[in-house]
Amino acid sequence: MRYDTELVCCFFVFRILMQLFSSASQSTTSETFYAKPFRLTYMLDLNRLKALHAVHVYGSVGAAADALMVTPSAVSQQIAKLERETGARLMERNGRGVRLTDAAGLLAEHAERILALVETAEADFEALRGAVVGRLNVGAFATATRGLMPAALVSLKQRHPDLWVQLSERDPDRVVREVARGELDLGVIQDWLNRPMAIPEGLSKATLLDDVADVAVPADHPLAGEREIELAALRGEQWISGSPGTVCHDWLVFTLRSASLEPVIACMADEYPTQLALVAAGLGCAIVPRLGRDCVPDGARLVPLRPRQSRRIYAVWRTDAARRPAIRAMVEALAESSRKQENAWAVN
To answer: How does DSSP assign 111-164, residue by residue?
Structure first.
């Protein structure tokens, strides 16, 4: 795999260097390019290209270091080596920080394509071997982490003991960004069917399940014993919501206003068990999905909504990595966990 990857890199880096050399010969400023000739062989170090690309994407050395999980000095050292090896100045002072030069911007744009091709080459090679091995960085929103991931990870560990999975809990928007940037290999996200989430170009997704949401009301609420509740019947109620800016908060406000209800937010809590506790205390109503739902407190009642409200749960990954056996194995494990969850809901 290393040999095939380096052939791909060699071809594209050669093209980059030719463009840089052409730019250098046409440049009228001596500050951007040094007299030192380009040395192609050193450009095959992907870590240098990753460092430069990260600074280009995140806008600073510090932010790039956080994304790559290294120190800022390590990023600076990689770019300094790249400067010496290309003979081009790649960063320059800009007030208290630094900015990339035009030469660095050109190289970073090509680096993005190179890194994508490397990922595709690695995925194709792993697919050829058929081995589910290596490391997989996975991100998921809170209720999926609690409701789907435990069973999926146990199944994956039993079937593929040589695959190491690192799980991180993230908001759906952040999961999508980090998958697109290559910080996560796979993510589990949600969108509400009446307010879908945009998926950037270059990502693929698979539906895992539809998660129905019910309205939670205090046990002594006049509608607590109903078989179904229309949102319009909850006019004048106070609501328990997630924090402003979160997917669930924005969806609740959108849904209530779509039903001609002006949301009055009494309390904000991002975890649904906390929302249920606040409902049980008589502090308001909440709309709570079924996935990852803990035991309902005695002081709260859950009633289905009419029309039904639900969110769709997806797995999402970079299309360039779609052939990786580890990606396929993770998606299959999540799909199996989702089917078990749906079967449990059907029984109840």
So the answer is: HHHHHHHHHHHHHHHHHHHT---EEEEEEE-HHHHHHTHHHHHHHHHHH-TTEE
